[in-house]
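Supplementary Methods, section 5.1.

A reviewer requested that the exact input to the structure prediction be made available. We therefore reproduce it here, unchanged from the version used in the analyses.
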Amino acid sequence: MSTIKKHKGLDNTLKVMKEGYLYTTNQRRRLGAENIFETRALGGKRILVISGKKAAELFYDNDKTERSGTLPKRLVNTLFGKGAIHTTTGKKHIDRKALFMSLMTEGNLKHLRELTRNHWYMNTHRMEQMDQINIYRESIILLTKVGTKWAGVQAPEEKIEEIATDMDVMIDSFKGLGTAFKGYKDSVAARRRVEDWLEDQIIQTRKGKIFPPEGTALYEFAHWEDYKGNPMDSRLCAIDLMNTFRPLIAINRFVSFGLLAMHEYPISKEKINNDPDYAYMFSQEVRRFYPFVPFLPGKAKTDIQFEGHDIEKDTMLVLDIYGTMHQDDVFENADEFYPERFLDWDGSPFDLIPQGGGDYYTNHRCAGEWMTIIIMEETMKYFAGKITYDVPEQDLTVDLNSIPGYIKSGFIIENVQENVDRK
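The structure derived from this sequence is encoded token-by-token as follows.
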């Protein structure tokens, strides 16, 4: 067996935070490693970083790896929530994942598509009255409206911006990678406010004081019982309820990236308007090409092997999400933005993994991935064909050294007008 190459250092967390999405790729190149190397981070823990399609297959093999107990505590406290489905494993995970997947009905997904399309159209007048629109900020507010409405949650208009801001603060907490970063207390406080608000709606639903439509997330979660016939604790229920629409709000990053791609590749607007399948391919390429989730933690469930290397049970593993999707042996010419690559894509659950991989029902692949694609398709169609706008001079740098990734300006547009064919 060959020796696993090491990034030397007692704790490389600061180096990871400094290099961001490029840390794993940079280290593989520096070390001359292919798809595995060793580092120490998060308090000096020994970690094996694995990359590539075979790495994803290993990482999402429930007989060989597991996620339980590997997410940093501070990240759980801010982004996912204590006891959230992301922290479970085995029967408990499968049981609760089935609840999430039960929402992915044809009718619910069609409703989400209609909500997205209608909300953007109804938002046109608002944007026409604005001097400039920061797409990052505008989309997080609109997607909060879409997400809460879809979930059956009561969200008064005057509370939307507060909820959107709190969600953004929580999502942004990923930047700390589980460390005591500046803003941690604000992230915890933001989560507490949203959990309090949702728990109250769970309780009121169970008491028969509010009546969300059957089939919505609020209704189904409030009335759900586990495999032992027990209802979910109201606080935990609020946490999992939030996780049905929080990922939708995080799509604001993909929205701003999508508009950047349209700006840099203007032909894409014409293709979206003329080819009914192009919005799908374009959305998938935005999800693959631009930074979202950098990497995910797990651990070896038993003694395993990866590409000729022995890995002992309980060894901490990190799957390189961003790096995998930018490897040429996974996607040809991976550093080029090319939506047509998805024209004949085989749908593998182990290569396009911006929101996790593997099986939706038994693995930790995001249950909201289908929803992400629907929202992106409708949003890209709206900006490509339903309005016209100008893109003023601004800093459009995508900062790959920052986690989560973002466009430095947020992507600003101006002179928005409804696109009406009056001929």
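DSSP finds 17 helices and ten strands in the chain. These observations are discussed further in the main text.
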